[in-house]
Amino acid sequence: MPQQVRGVISRAKGEPVELVTINVPDPGPGEAVVSIAACGVCHTDLTYRDGGINDEYPFLLGHEAAGIVESVGEGVDTVAPGDFVVLNWRAVCGKCRACKRGRPWYCFDTHNAKQKMTLEDGTELTPALGIGAFADKTLVAAGQCTKVDPQADPAVVGLLGCGVMAGMGAAMNTGNVGRGDSVAVIGCGGVGDAAIMGARLAGADKIVAIDRDPKKLDWATDLGATHTIDASSTDVVEAVQELTGGFGADVVIDAVGRPETWKQAFYARDLAGTVVLVGVPTPDMTLEMPLVDFFSHGGSLKSSWYGDCLPERDFPMLVSLYQQGRLPLEKFVTERIALTDVEKAFETMHRGEVLRSVVIL
Ligand SMILES: NC(=O)c1ccc[n+]([C@@H]2O[C@H](COP(=O)([O-])OP(=O)(O)OC[C@H]3O[C@@H](n4cnc5c(N)ncnc54)[C@H](O)[C@@H]3O)[C@@H](O)[C@H]2O)c1
Ligand SMILES: [Zn+2]
Ligand SMILES: [Zn+2]
């Protein structure tokens, strides 16, 4: 029997979100229904609401979540009812060319649930990033459920499901930061600060945090930045070079995703250094630069999808490091809110007052 639960939807472009009743089908083959315990409010949810992803309204928002598997469909043997899981938005297929070449983090055919959740009148919902977890329960592909230690706080470890993993992975996986490296991170929101935390975990020596908001620079320092640059009043490229003996950083991570920040990242790096673009540009943005600069700087220009993570490999490991006190994941939870407060949380986020508001269910 389909269940009726509460869910936060976005019905039309730019309109405030609404708390409504939704229908969640029983899990079909390869699917699971998860009872949500906590779900972080990510910038991408706001981008969905504002039409920046696509126009497949109504959206069921929320995607940085942890919860308990309630039921599973036919053929599911990776999780079982009662398992505590963090949801992920890249359940790899194991069959596509990327998977077969041994690079599953690039999987070109990731899984979501096949059935649709609906409004009471039968209108099909589009779950944000194939998850839709601002809801009491949601339907996902079983591969989107990653088992982690049930002792962990769901509000904290649910954040691994998107922004924190994207940032940490941008440093550790895509940027391949190593012991003694110098790293600069442009944009110190949830994603940039997670990149700082990842760089620290990977053994970076200098970690330079760059933002236009002094409060963000304080938080970045708390998460491991060794130096800060206020981008509203300082030349970012010169300041990074000054802090790195005139060379530039080994790895520069752009966690804003605009042409001007990417250019700063490009020029703030040492010869043969690495640029990682993890901030998401909009389709109208373009870049014009002398081609010879690409040639003469050498090195590597990369982008990072979900931090090139493998949830099965990375989530349990990061939860374990958090539980040992080696990863201050709890610092990302600025406030805990109710399901009725998602719209208010968008405003707080917009004013730059939080790293993450987390809905507790
Ligand atoms: N690649 C992925 O898989 C992935 C996953 C999640 C999020 N993201 C993207 O990462 C980006 C950051 O997300 P977030 O949640 O941290 O957002 P956020 O809004 O919390 O943080 C952005 C930060 O950048 C700063 N900033 C803006 N313009 C700046 C500039 N010109 N110079 C310096 N600092 C500047 C802001 O002050 C803010 O602190 C977004 O584009 C988001 O869509 C990417
Ligand atoms: Zn694949
Ligand atoms: Zn997100």
Characterise this structure.
This protein is of the alpha/beta class. Helices cover 26% and strands 26% of the residues. The protein has helices spanning 43-49, 97-100, 154-157, 163-174, 190-201, 214-222, 236-243, 259-267, 291-297, 311-323, 342-350; strands at residues 3-10, 18-24, 31-40, 59-60, 64-72, 84-87, 118-119, 126-127, 137-141, 145-147, 182-186, 206-211, 227-230, 249-254, 269-277, 300-303, 335-337, 357-360. Helix 4 crosses helix 5. Nicotinamide-adenine-dinucleotide binds at residues 43-44, 162-163, 166, 186-192, 210-213, 216, 231, 255-257, 261, 278-280, 304-306, 352.
Q: What is shown here, in short?
A:
With 361 residues, the protein is of the alpha/beta class.
Summarize the helix and strand pattern as letters: EEEHEEEHEEEEHHEHEHEHEHEHEHEHE
Tell me what portion of residues adopts beta-strand conformation.
Answer: 25-35%
The backbone outline, from C-alpha atoms, is globular
Largest sheet: 7 strands, mixed
- Beta strands, count: 18
Distance between the termini: 22 Å
Average residue pLDDT: 96
Query: How many separate helices?
Result: 11
Helix content: 25-40%
Structural class: alpha/beta
